[in-house]
Amino acid sequence: MLPSLLSPNKLKKILTTSNNFYDKFRIVEANLGPNKEAYKNAHIDKAIFIDTLECSDSNHMYPRNVPKPDCFKDYVGSLGIGNKHHLILYDRSPFGFYTSSRLWWVFRLFGHESVSILDGGLRLWAYQNNPLSREEPDFKPDKFEIKENMQLIRTYEDIQTNLNTNKDQVVDVRGAHEFNRYIDEGLLNHIPKSKNLAYNDLFDKENLKLKDIEELKKLFEESKVDLSKPLIASCMTGMTACSLAFAAHLLGKSDVPVYYGSWTEYSQRRNN
């Protein structure tokens, strides 16, 4: 079993020393949309291109909706991903988590726990002069079965209930300016009682990767997020909240659900 966070050096070592690597693993490039131009130009060798919005019914309320399970299992199975594979995810965002952490959450939501994220993504991989390829893989279709873990997702109704019970801390990862500004009728631009821990603060910008464990612990403490208590991750559209859930996972809290509608849904429904 690989760790949830994988350094480029660790991945390089596994690729060069493992026997029958592709019997046990799949490398996946997580993308937001179907455009494969950048992927075709350069990607990690034998990485599978996945559009994280495939199988999603997106609309103004849920612009980045959760994939439909039956469609998703057929989609990833057709790409050669099976339940026997440990998945190593990466993306092309500055620090490698924007889309990969969302796909990490989706796979776990659908019952597949054998998932790691490449720290720093493609940017750090390439910066460290690791090899890239233009050749697309051609894996045989595989069987991917889904067992939904509904403990990892929250709805608008769950958030409304929580406003009365105060059982869970709601943590919003939008930037502080966006979180704290006032909007219509003097209302604050966030879910009442929620806390703010900005997505951008999760990263070590000098080294192009996620902050280390001690820095992440300090960040949660400074944001007054108590990891010994239940929490729900939220953002604008259910994307960057997944990076917060991943960071909490690294700190030993693996049960953090994501409010998938996040502020986009909440802001439209709260006055109805």
UniProtKB/TrEMBL annotation:
GO terms for cellular component: mitochondrion. PROSITE patterns: RHODANESE_3. The keyword Repeat applies. Gene3D superfamilies: Rhodanese-like domain. Residues 30-134, 164-270 form the Rhodanese domain. Keywords: Repeat, Transferase. InterPro entries: Rhodanese-like_dom, Rhodanese-like_dom_sf, TST/MPST-like. The keyword Repeat applies. One of its GO terms (molecular function) is thiosulfate-cyanide sulfurtransferase activity. Pfam families: Rhodanese. This is Rhodanese domain-containing protein. It comes from Brachionus calyciflorus. The lineage of its organism: Eukaryota, Metazoa, Spiralia, Gnathifera, Rotifera.
